[in-house]
Each structure stands twice: as structure tokens, then as C-alpha cells.
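#struct-pred

JT: dropping the chains for the assembly here, can someone run the whole complex?
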Amino acid sequence: MADDSAHGVQIPSAKTSGSKEYTDVGADNGSDQDVPRFTVPVDSENKSKVLKIWSFQRPHHLCFHLNWMSFMIAFFATFAAPPMMPVIRDDLDLTKQDISGAAIASVTGAVFSRILLGAVCDSYGPRYGHGVLQLLTSCATFGMAAVSNSAGFIACRMLIGFSLATFVACQFWCSVLFNAKIVGTANAVAAGWGNMGAGLTHLIMPYILSGIEKSQPNFVAWRCAYFIPAWMQIFIGLAVLVFGQDLPDGNYSALRKAGKKDKAKTHMELLAAVKNYRTWVMVLTYGYCFGVELTVDNNISPYLYDQFDMDLHTAGVLGAVFGLSNLFARALGGITSDLVARKYGMRGRLWNLWIVQTLGGVCSIAMFYCDSSLGLTMMVVAFWSIFVPMGCGASYGIAPFITRRGLGVASGLIGAGGNAGSAVTQALFFTGTNMSTAEGFKWMGVMIIAVTATLVTIHFPMWGGMLTRGNPDITEEEYYSRDYTAAEREQGLHRAILNWASESRSNRGFKDQLAKLSADLTEKANTATAV
Amino acid sequence: MLRASLLLALLGLCSLAAAQQTYSSVQPSNYTLTLSFTLDGVTTTPAPCTQFDPSTSTCLPQGSVPDGDSITIAYSGPATPGNTVSLMFCYSNTSSVNRAWRKYNAVISEDKKCNVAKPFKTGLPTGEGSFKWTPGPNSAPSTYQIQLLEVVAGSDPTTYAASGKSEGYYQIIPIDSRPTWLMALVGVFCTVGPITLAGFFTYEKIYKKD
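RK: done, full complex below.
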């Protein structure tokens, strides 16, 4: 039956495990023409239950790789300017204020595009989310080669920065491809490898520039160098559209044509996300997680250069440590989130996030007290570069469970919160002349700890919160069905999320699940005895 | 063993002192510099332009890099056999304000305002001499003056014995970093993304109808 949710389709769920090809067999329809076949174990929503990073099999893992590569290329293009800044600032005669303004613009633009892209993903699918963003922002990336002053430079960086909204499509796509037990890990690996694009661009763009400089003056070479990330955006945008697949069962358009999916009601998805207070708590905390990461990426190299009198190259290499740690650190956050959830459920996920994010705040404060020693500073940076991305990974181990109907919008809002947090933090602590950068790190750390404390307000009725227990009698189906009106529930439109609700029951944690099972068995036994 | 240790310690101290050599050690300036400009093929030696607003000044000589304009630096000072003279450009205060990468440092080797790390000419003889410099294609559009530093022969790290600075400033007109061929390429390439997107949408729409 058709539904109006953006998530999942109605296919009878029965699978044969243990065989090499896992087939979702339709026991009732007697035909397997419409039944997708997968080479990985899948759950009732045909989501992969494993993450094989070495696999490129369709659809789950091919889409996974297209997903993170698209996000990485967006980061590569957005942060292509900083490693070439010594040349760009001379050509365009930029001041420090111009460069800072461009840095803020590059993250601010994505605030709005991330919110918008959540709705796009819910309605049209993550494939179009990636493809549209990459192909349209490639114009701005090419256009950077034509700028002649600071205004053009700032405008182009803002427009290219819109491509950072591919983060929302990235997280959404992982959430619909991978099972609840592994979605945290998948989200974290994809986002972490994507964020690594900022570190890679610092390493690669100087080589591209020096190669072109052999035949062109510097001031022309940096413009030509921008063609590389622009063409990368075009190729990945096309690749995602051609080879990608929105859902394990097919693309949105094909599923709608087959009558298995209705066009989503965008305003209902928006409402589902916006009216849920948990979305806004996560927006706030992510602003002091990913927002901190962006702020530090913009400030760490100039800080090392000024504080310890380094040359720009050395400061750049040491500063790149922060971005390159995303290779493993963000995934580590997702992995720990999934690991603690096995035993402690959602309460464990929340505590995990609180711990790593608070430790990130402590490291930020420590930067102030280590400002006279390069060795101590780099030691703090090493730990800092692990805790901050871990917090980002742990955040998206929680985000997929806030709302199912408004998953895209919620992901978009939370992602936008990261960029907004960076813009606010940059403006508050790193723009004025009355506060040194080291002092800015200290007060940013205080703010991180204070904002992270708001996590205690998150409470799921069936799972509980950091300091509260859940009510085991409330089912996940009841919670997620609340996003549908009574009329919609009567029509059965909420059935699309029932499979997801069932899969998310693992967030009760082992002990709670065991207690519930025991209670159910006891009740059955008592009933049988009474009979 | 003791002598070797003492010698090494002394060398270490000397290198430390040299690395920390400040401008005050070469003041007052022993060299005078005079700049003459060849602009559009015409050579002139204008009066030094010291007070200026880069956007409105009429006294600033403007050297155009695309036209191949050049600056002839004539210097005069005490001759010291063995030593050599290095020439470098210095950003004016106007061109270095709000630009930390051009900040002044009293330690000569760390000074970025005067580009000490990359002089445009080295090995010139001390005493009297001249050098004709043609600014290269990577010259930034700023206002500059010229600085001279006399390098002590065989010093490692580099030690300076004397200095001089031009009284007046000049302005560089840079190359056109947006040549026609580049703009044409940008214009063409900018259309690739939207056309690809439109083409794909059209293809999917037709495919869906079929």
C-alpha cells in the first residue's frame, strides 16, 4: 500500500539468512519480480546490517562510497582557498578582515542550505540532494577563477560553502541504507571521511598550484587550480545521479511510479522535526561540537603562527592535524555510540556524547594554560582533535532516532546548527581585538561545557534520558506514530515507519530488553496457568 | 675534548646572536639609495614620494609589470672588501596594516615587512653601485620602498654589517591575472554543471514516461 512517508516501503519482511544472497521473499505475493536482492544481510526495511568499507556492491555500499566521496569533495572545494591564501591575498590585496569575513561566509551559507536540503531529501531523495548541490555549486567554484576583489572572493566562498549541505544528504542517505544498530557507525565514518576533505585540500592544493606555476604566473595559477575541485564536483554529482540509489529498494521516482511510495508532504516532515524539542537541543549541542571544529580549523594555524613565531607552512601542517584526525575520530564517536547502546541503549548514547563533548571543552580551556609551550599545546591539540570529531560522530548516533517522519529536516536543522555555532563562536571570541586567541579558546571551552549540559533535558519516553529511566510499556511504534495525525493513522499512513520503530527497539539496551522479555514471558506463563 | 666543547658552545652563542640580530645593530644607515624609474620607456628620477594616499596620490611612481617598467636603484656607502650587498623591497605602512603576514619584526631575519628572507638581488659589491630591477609577474599591487643590507662575507647564519633604505615609495601595477582565455574558459565551464543537471532531469523524465 502506498504511504506518504519518505522512509521505507511496504514489502513483506522475511529473509533467508546464512545464504550468500539475502533475498527479501514475498511470501504472500508469490512473485519475486518486485523483490530486491541483496548481497549483504538486511533487516525488515532492507537496510544493510553490516558496513563493509571495502565493498562497492550495489546498492548499500556503492551508495555509501558515493555518499562520503561527494561530501568530501564538497569540503575539498569549500576549503581550497586557505592553502593558497598567501598567493590569493596578494593578488586580491586582501586584509585580515577580508579573509576572516570569507571564512565566516563559507560556513554561514551552509546554515540555510542545510535546512533546505533536509526537506529536499525527504521529498526527492538524497541522490538529488547530492547531485543538485554539487552541479550547481560547481558554477561558483569555477567562478572563483574570475574574482577580482575581496567582495567577489567573499561571495564565491559563500556560494561554494552551500555545498557543505551535502552533509545532510550524507547523513540522511546512511540512515536509510543502514540498520539502526550500525547507523551510528555508518554516519560517523561517512561524515568523518567527508570532513577529511578539509585536511586533504591543505595537502593537495599546494601541489596543484606549484604544478601550474611552472607555466603560469602565481596570480593566474591559483585561479586555474580552482578548476580541479570544480571538475571534481561535476564528476561526483553526475556519478551520484547515475549510479546512486535513494533507497535499498530503488529510487524515489521509480518507487512512486510503481505505486509503492507517495510524494511526501513536505510541511508534515518539517512539522515533525520542528515540534520535537529534542531536535533543538541537538541543534544547540551540535553547534558546540561541529561548530567548534570549523572554528578551530579556521583559527589554529594563524594561532600557531603568531603565538610560536612559525612560518606559514609549518603552522599549516600542524594545524591540519585537527582536520585529518577525522579519518578515524568521527567514526570512533559513532562506534562508541553503537557499542554503549548495545548494553545501555539510548541512555548510553547520551552519556557517551556528554562525556566526549565535555572533554573537548576541557581541552579548549587547556589551550589557554598551555599557550607558552608548543609541546604542551600540540599535546592538547592531539587530544582535542579526537574528542571534538568524536562528539560529532556521537551526535549523529542519536539524531536518526529523534523523529522518523522528519528525519531529513531534523538532520538538516542539526547540521545547520553546527555551522551557526561556528559563525556565532567566531564572532564572539575570535573577531574582536580585546581578546587574544588563547583567551578565545578558554571561553569557548567554558561555553562548550555549559551548552553540552543541556543534554540532560533529552528524554525519550520509552528509552529515558541521562538521568531518567524510560517507561518500557511505551512502544517505539507509539512514539514514532505521534508524528502522524489521527486521520493519517486511521488511513494507515503511519505503517511505513513501523519497521523502523521495530528496528530501533535496540535502543532500550540489553538489560531493559531482557527485563521486558522476562516480564512478557512471566505474563504468558501466568495467563496459561490461569487458563 | 674541553676545547672542542668550548668552541662548539661559542659557535652556538655566535649563531644565536646572529639569528637574533636586530635592526638597531645596523643603525644609523650607512648607505643612501636613489631610485629612478623607467616607465613606458621614459627614465626619470622623481623627487621621493613620502606622504601619499595610494588611491589619490599623484607623486607615487607607478611601475607597471605588464609594460615591463623597471626601477634602477643607485646606492652609495662605505666599501668593505669581501662583503656583498642585498636588495629587497619593503611594504609601506599602508600596505602592511591589517596584514599580519607583512608584520614588522625588529629581528632582521624574522622581519616580513621587508621580505628579508627573499631579496630580489644578492651579491652586489659594497661601496657604490647600481642595479636595474624589473618587478616580476608575481608582484602584489602594493606600495613599496627599497631596502639595502650589507651581508658579512662567509657569515652563517647571515650577519649584516650595514643598511640603507630609499626615502621615497613607489606603487606596483600588477599583471592582469584574468586573461581573456581564462575568462572564456570560466564562462564555458560555468555552464557545464547546470546543463548536466538539466540534461539528466530531462533524460529521467523521458525515461519515466517510457
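JT: nice. The mean pLDDT of chain A is 83. The two ends of chain A are 39 Å apart (CA to CA).
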